């Protein structure tokens, strides 16, 4: 059904030709979609379960839920656009929506690498304190994750202005924090529905005010409560080994860098997909 919906949208304006670079990225998106998450669970299994339990006691699901609620606004406020506009050679963020995918990818790569570096430093600093440091580390990591998603979106010409955009950001975080392939597929399926909504709104040039009326809190696909539960499992498992004093600094930095690397790639692939869809360059075998 969703395929037919997208197909109708595409047929309405006609497909455009895909260049060699765009085709390569489409293939990359397809490979990324099929990748199974949950490496931490497979690597350590039951070994980290007691430590993960301790981390969860220090930073419970309610704390993650609170961090998510506050981090969204903080991340949006912290996301500047001047450097992307300058480096992209455009006068506004929206111009990047249709300029050049390879350029957007280069801009996103810089943002991604910067975020990984910050994550490593922050994780090493708080990791030196073991379990007590987790109370500050995890909210900071969530804020950096959301800021990274916001900033990468800017690189492709997408600013967070509507409830749909906010849901898209939370959806990317849900994909990056999936604990199983089933969770990842479910999040990506929901995101595809959002892509259709957002693309349809763009093509019909509906105003921001009208877009807000289209999407209410009651119809939200991704909720802070459900996302906090998912991230609670994912992040506590990652942070389990970093809870050990003295070695926590080295492990904490690595874990944070690894997590932001995954968040960044989820954002890049999904914003690439959205860019291609809005530019009528979506191939059937990806849908």
Task: Tag the structure with descriptive keywords.
mainly alpha; 287 residues
Description of the structure:
There is one protein chain. The protein is mainly alpha-helical and 287 residues long. It has one domain (19-286). The protein is built from 13 helices and no strands. Helix 2 (20-34) packs across helix 13, helix 8 crosses helix 9 and helix 8 (131-155) runs parallel beside helix 13. The longest helix is centred in the last third of the chain and has 31 residues, at 248-278. The model is unreliable at 1-12 and 206-213 (pLDDT under 50).
Helix and strand topology:
Layout lengths: L1 H12 L6 H15 L4 H6 L4 H10 L2 H18 L3 H7 L12 H27 L3 H25 L7 H14 L4 H23 L4 H7 L9 H16 L8 H31 L9
Helix pairs in contact: 1-10, 2-13, 4-12, 5-8, 5-12, 7-8, 7-13, 8-9, 8-13, 9-10, 9-13
Domain tally: 1
The separation of the N and C termini measures 11 Å
| Count of DSSP strands | 0
What ranges have pLDDT less than 50 throughout 5 or more consecutive residues?
1-12, 206-213
Helix tally equals 13
Q: How do the helices and strands follow one another from N- to C-terminus?
A: HHHHHHHHHHHHH
Helix content: over 70%
């Amino acid at each position: 059904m969703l395929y037919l919906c997208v197909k109708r949208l595409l047929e309405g304006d006609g497909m455009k030709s895909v260049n060699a670079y765009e085709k390569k990225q489409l293939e990359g998106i397809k490979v990324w979609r099929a990748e199974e998450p949950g490496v931490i669970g497979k690597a350590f299994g039951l070994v980290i379960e007691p430590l993960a339990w301790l981390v969860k006691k220090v930073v419970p699901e309610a704390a993650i839920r609170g961090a998510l609620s506050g981090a969204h606004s903080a991340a949006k406020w912290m996301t500047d656009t001047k450097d992307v506009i300058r480096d992209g050679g455009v006068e506004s963020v929206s111009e990047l929506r249709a300029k050049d995918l390879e350029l957007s990818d280069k801009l996103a790569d810089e943002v991604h690498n910067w975020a990984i570096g910050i994550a490593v430093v922050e994780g090493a600093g708080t990791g030196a304190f073991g379990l007590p440091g987790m109370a500050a580390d995890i909210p900071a990591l969530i804020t950096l994750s959301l800021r990274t998603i916001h900033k990468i979106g800017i690189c492709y010409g997408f600013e967070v202005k509507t409830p749909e955009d906010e849901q898209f950001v939370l959806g990317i975080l849900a994909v990056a924090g999936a604990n199983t392939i089933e969770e990842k597929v479910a999040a990506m399926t929901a995101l595809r529905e959002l892509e259709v909504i957002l693309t349809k709104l763009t093509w019909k040039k509906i105003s921001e005010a009208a877009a807000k009326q289209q999407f209410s809190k009651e119809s939200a696909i991704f909720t802070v409560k459900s996302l906090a539960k998912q991230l609670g499992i994912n992040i506590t498992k990652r942070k389990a080994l970093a809870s050990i004093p003295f070695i926590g600094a080295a492990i904490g930095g690595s874990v944070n860098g690894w997590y932001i690397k995954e968040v960044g790639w989820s954002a890049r692939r999904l914003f690439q997909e959205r860019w291609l869809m809005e530019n009528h360059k979506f191939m059937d075998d990806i849908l």
